[in-house]
Amino acid sequence: xxxxxxxxxxxxxxxxxxxxxxxxxxxxxxxxxxxxxxxxxxxxxxxxxxxxxxxxxxxxxxxxxxxxxxxxxxxxxxxxxxxxxxxxxxxxxxxxxxxxxxxxxxxxxxxxxxxxxxxxxxxxxxxxxxxxxxxxxxxxxxxxxxxxxxxxxxxxxxxxxxxxxxxxxxxxxxxxxxxxxxxxxxxxxxxxxxxxxxxxxxxxxxxxxxxxxxxxxxxxxxxxxxxxx
Length: 229
What we know:
With 229 residues, this protein is an alpha+beta fold.
């Protein structure tokens, strides 16, 4: 597309192209998501059967399990990451596509919340597994404790904070309590300080994310804010 327009815009472009070619469904994949070929075929076949129910809008692989680790058959979940998911394109169009303003981070959860608010169902199939890397995790032992942090790029920390705050504002009934959210932010900060490199830049990006939320700014990080730290 010539430049980085964000994952939401890229997904929307691909889904629109699929629809224009007559497709009813789309499989969404990040560049680092890997399926075993036979497992992928099973994922597609199962999804086709599940989509017979017109209220099913998204079918995710087993690595997206959020509610239970003991299920064997497809079951309902509140949310799933986009990568590895198969979506019904008419549902994607009906709820207003992926939110371009979020750019990256929380794009998937925003999409799933809007699906559920339209009474669509999101399913996870535990029989299908994939590998998908979240960040570039780092681990450090401090005294008796093993500290693990996702070690995301500093720019992702900006979107993680800003977009999480937006989702809390837009969907208060769908969000966890504020105390839990603040706890997550604190743990993120501690992980960055104790484990990761480039700490000042990452903490600065988180601060700017909070400021941009208060200023009602969406879209990409504005280059003039790029910290020379």
